[in-house]
Write a structure and sequence with these properties.
The structure is a homodimer of 453-residue chains. By secondary structure, chain A is an alpha+beta fold. Chain A folds into 2 domains: 319 residues, BirA Bifunctional Protein, domain 2 (2-Layer Sandwich), CATH 3.30.930.10; 104 residues, 3-Layer(aba) Sandwich (Rossmann fold). Helices cover 43% and strands 17% of the residues of chain A. Chain A has 17 helices and 16 strands. In chain A, helix 5 crosses helix 11. The longest helix of chain A has 20 residues. Chain A starts with 16 loop residues before the first helix and ends with a helix. Chains A and B meet through helix 1, strand 1, strand 2, helix 4 and strand 5 of A and helix 1, strand 1, strand 2, helix 4 and strand 5 of B.
């Protein structure tokens, strides 16, 4: 065989253990919160008929997807999100009891130009409620967002708004053209980045908004204060009728529900300029940000989109979702030094002293594994001790068990704490309990924020 | 927009919650055992350069893969196993400390003709040790196979053999042609299915084996008894030299190590006719079978393959792996009625009595969620009680909490056990503890074999 050069496609990457361990832990934490709120797992194929995945979008999205002819000459596309497949699934399973609360964790593929932090294959982690207009759905999504961040040891703010407010603004300003309003929204969304001056310029130049209208929009953007304050100011601007009023009522209801759910009010903030890009949002919208790392963008986001799920049925089906940004949140944890480094899930490495003593090492590893402690055992009983120690160290395994003939004669082992550098002897009977205690004291793989340390 | 017909590609399927819940639980159990043995998670891209994935195989495999030109006109292929990507990863990361113990759970894609139980997208769940020839690797893989099945509530037998034994047989019989021996092996592997008569016929017809050779092969296949018995009979047939002898020594060593690992000897059985298809195995080979469901085939399998991982480096790198058959094992659990049905991970459904009482329901759900109990809350406070009950019942949620004004006045709730049909009242303070206790008594989502029930 001619030698093949081992290489990887641009825009794709391997996840070696040191990346996979925190990533899997994060997925586990997130899905555990999803399940706590009663969301059930769903999976759909990686590949679907192109007209099914692209029907609604065409144009823009079309160029960014991985689309090809399969073995049977069918026009197929790799999924580029988890929402269109959910819509397709709902259409094919109309008998499902509603509300249908599902979460899905899976890779999606986009043909975007790869760059730093931009990949052609990346993981999405979504939770959605389909089939209920109750504001409790919105409240659950917001509280879940907060709960997840807290569990990951991150102090996040969930920024909230409602798209109906902008419909009310359009009415109040008498902007007849939806196209013009779309441009306005795209500009407003940049408010926190480019400030009032930037917004003024762009509104005048790109959206031909001027005079009183411009002033009123800027007045709206300047609204700030506590959430109830903000709502009152919005109310006085938009009047007490129409969709704007409905949006304010919805926000008020959502915040009242959140207050009943033991979530700190300070973690949820109404942000008048929050628009969110996608056109399909119809009500509540939100983004999770870290005040200490604003430049990282949002750690997750979502909103109510009552028009999308029913696309295959040509009817409206109420729906709201939360999408967690796994990779961005991992990057934030790393930046904040809350991401411990280990390339093994093992908490203990059991060394081998010699071929003669190997049975004793095997016994120790067996005892620890039976106690559900992830344990790596030296596989080569003849390997040099120093080599075994540097192997355990290279993998970031926090505890090492040393078991020579002296220890075996007394039915004890020596446990070395690789971080503290300390050693202690323990009887085999009490070893597992000691190790569990030691791991709890300095949980080497928990983000520090979750352990109270 | 013209209406798009929602449909799914042939050979692909959705995993609705009732399939995903047991599947995810199984993956969790398996990976938990992998981690207990010190294996670390790895992930690799779904798509790779075709020459990288297909280089070694070409021909046969080539037709069964999903291969296409990507946006950049690159010749790419979707991964069809997790072993070739591991070999590519090892070649690109030569600095990794050895032994490298990784597990990988991920979908693979094959262009096979779809049929009952045969899909073009399916999940693989592999654990491999790269870089060690120690028989302890083989022992760990075998014990993991047994531990996993036990945790899933299945009484499995791990059938074991060693490919060196067949090399010894080839030497002992003086079969010069490797091609002829390959045909012999393919026939021997069918021994348990077609019996001695079938093997005799095929050996004579397809492998042109007759006379003394045929008799000696049949004598070999008839070897049975306890493992040490079997080893002694193999020994006397193959003599005390060459690769056959080495295979017997390896088997003996592996079984001695297993005996030190608290694994019941009866769960591991040397089966002389076990060959396993793939050509790349070089030593220990094994298959996990269920004596009560032999027709289901193997629940998992693996072996030592010292020639594959180094394919990109053109050198031998020792390696051994275990691959769990997720879907087949799920089917076996279903057949044995050990697969409880639920379409929600929620253990409790909290009903809503009325809009006025809704705050009380929210409070209950919040308390349960804070206690890590997966809880679904009625999202519409005005929904009819009967509708709420049938929703909880349709989803297989085992406990329902009822909280009306009478209950609220006394700070209690009524808990209904949906399986037993019984009801009891509990104070909010002790509710979570009661529910945890009730769930432990009849764990509704545990395979019965693991709970002792």
């Amino acid at each position: 065989m001619a030698k093949v050069e081992p290489r990887i496609l641009k825009g794709f990457r391997d996840y070696p253990p040191e990346l996979m361990i925190p990533r899997m832990r994060m997925v586990r934490e997130i899905t555990e919160v999803f399940e706590r709120f009663g969301f059930a797992p769903l999976d759909t194929p990686a590949i679907e008929y192109s007209d099914v995945l692209l029907g609604k979008y065409g144009g823009e999205t079309d160029k960014q997807v991985t689309r090809f002819k399969d073995q049977g000459d069918r026009d197929v596309t790799m999924r580029f999100d988890l929402t269109v497949p959910l819509a397709r699934f709902m259409a094919m399973n109309r008998q499902l009891p509603k509300p249908f609360k599902r979460y899905q964790v899976g890779n999606v593929w986009r043909g975007e130009k790869p760059g730093p932090g931009r990949f052609r294959e990346f993981m999405q982690c979504d939770a959605d409620i389909v089939g209920s207009s109750s504001m409790m759905c919105d409240a659950e999504c917001l509280v879940m967002a907060h709960t997840i961040m807290k569990r990951l040891g991150l102090d996040a703010i969930v920024q909230v708004n409602n798209r109906l407010i902008f419909r009310g603004m359009q009415q109040a300003l008498g902007i007849d053209s939806d196209e013009q309003m779309t441009i306005v929204l795209r500009i407003l969304d940049k408010y926190l980045k480019i400030g009032e001056k930037g917004v003024r310029e762009e509104l005048a130049r790109d959206a031909t908004i001027d005079g009183t209208r411009l002033e009123r929009i800027c007045e709206y953007l300047r609204i700030s204060g506590g959430n109830e304050d903000v709502l009152r100011q919005m109310e006085s601007m938009l009047g007490s009728a129409g969709e704007g009023k409905a949006g304010i009522t919805q926000l008020r209801e959502v915040f009242a529900l959140i207050a009943q759910m033991d979530a700190p009010a300070s973690a949820f903030q109404i942000v008048p300029s929050l628009v969110r890009g996608a056109d399909y949002y119809t009500g509540t919208i939100f983004e999770i940000v870290l005040p200490e790392l604003i430049s990282f963008g949002s750690m997750g986001s979502g909103g109510r989109y009552d028009g999308l799920i029913g696309m295959f049925l040509n009817e409206d089906v109420p729906a709201i979702g939360l999408s967690m940004g796994i990779d961005r949140t991992l990057a934030a944890l790393e930046e904040l030094k809350k991401l411990p480094v280990a390339s093994s899930p093992a908490k203990v490495f059991v060394t081998a002293f010699s071929a003669e003593q190997y049975a004793y090492s095997i016994r120790i590893a067996t005892v620890l594994r039976a106690a559900a402690i992830p344990t790596e055992l030296a596989l080569d009983p003849d390997a040099k001790f120093k080599k075994q120690m540097s192997y355990a160290s290279a993998k970031g395994i926090p505890l090492v068990v040393i078991a020579g003939p002296d220890e075996a004669a007394k039915n004890v082992v020596t446990v070395k704490d690789m971080t503290a550098g300390t050693q202690s002897q323990h009887a085999i009977d009490t070893l597992a309990a000691h190790i569990k205690g030691a791991l709890q004291k300095t949980p080497p793989e928990q983000p520090s924020g979750t352990s109270g340390a």
